[in-house]
From TrEMBL:
Protein name: Putative seryl-trna synthetase
GO terms assigned for molecular function: ATP binding; serine-tRNA ligase activity
Presence of keyword Hydrolase: no
Domain of life per record: Eukaryota
Cleaved signal peptide residues: none
GO biological process, one term: seryl-tRNA aminoacylation
Site, Important for serine binding: residue positions: 373
InterPro entries the record matches: aa-tRNA-synth_II/BPL/LPL (IPR045864), Ser-tRNA-ligase_type_1 (IPR002317), SerRS_1_N_sf (IPR042103), tRNA-bd_arm (IPR010978)
Tagged with keyword Transmembrane: no
SUPFAM superfamilies linked to this entry: Class II aaRS and biotin synthetases, tRNA-binding arm
Organism name: Rhodnius neglectus
Recorded coiled-coil stretches: 43-70
Amino acid sequence: YSVLKPYLDFDEKLENLEKFENNIKLRGLDIELPMLITKWQHYKSVKDDIQKLEKERIRITEEVSSVEASSDADKIKSLKFAGVNVREALKTLKMVLSELEEQLYPQVLQLPNEIAENFKDELIYSKDVQEADVEDHIEVGNKLDLLEYISPRLYFLKGAAAVFELAMSNKMANLFINNNFIQFSNPDFTRNSIVECLKLKDIQSLLSLDIIRDDEELDRLHLNGGASVFPFCCYHSKSITNVSALPLQYATKGRHYAESQLPGLYGVWQNTSVQIFIGTTKETINEHLSSTVKLLTDFYATFEIPLRVIYVQPNNLSNCEKMRISFQTFSSFHKQYFELGNLSLYGDYISKRMRMYYSENRVDKFIHVISGTVLKIPPLLASLLEYKRDSTVNNSLLNKDNPE
């Protein structure tokens, strides 16, 4: 497969060093920035030296051609000797550059995205529900014969709960399709090169498989599930989209795999989810973010469960995120909030790594991206079980929507 070489924007980050250092501080990251800057400057110096030698090599080649016509043997010999020295120097410097890239690229790719300027430390939406007797949702589900929970890795939904899983994933997917999103069917596995390139630390694969290719090179595949941002990024990697085709709006329903330490259905390792992807311009990205947040808030507000929509604090963002908005419900039994879905603003952070462009007036620009796992079925089901604990929960789930 073809090589993907990320675009490194370290120079752009260094244009406002104070702002960048504050970004790192707010995120609570431990990055030795002065040492990294020194390495970067050395890397750029080597690249400049290579460019100078390339120009010198071309000059010598052209001069040899012109001197050969005059049959000046001594001059030709001198130029050819100089040409050999330049080629040897180029060979050495290119080896040095390759070693520097191997050391530097992983470190630069770990640098965080800028925190969004419109980030606010406040609630976006909040709704309370009157509490009844506190009881664990697993116990409620067992009493109503709606689920069999063995461990975070192994559980079964039964009866109305199984119908609910199908119905809600269909309903959420159709909500976006009716708002001009294109439905996708994504693969569950992602190549190691893509995972390493994007450095999305918040997305942890549940399983890795090593495959020996025909050329006997080792390739690793990561199990993330179709409800992941990775497949969408791969689809547009190393491509240019005409600005008239924007916004790119995709939705998919599928499996989401991730380890978790949360209790019960709030922390199962495999769940049915809905993932969306929006690719657009810098000028319109905030408009799309606001309209999508409203769409999701209206959806979750229809359920008789506690709900809050918040901005995630910078120290809880992954390196790739400019902003994340979290849709959460409160568990009276566990006395804490659990996430039902999320929406992340990435800006052009992903596009620079995946070379995702759009063309406007013959100028190629990086696509700005919004993506998120907007619905996770098990946490929503857990909250409904906790706040509707009598036998009517069966009818409530069955009548909420019918799977298509």
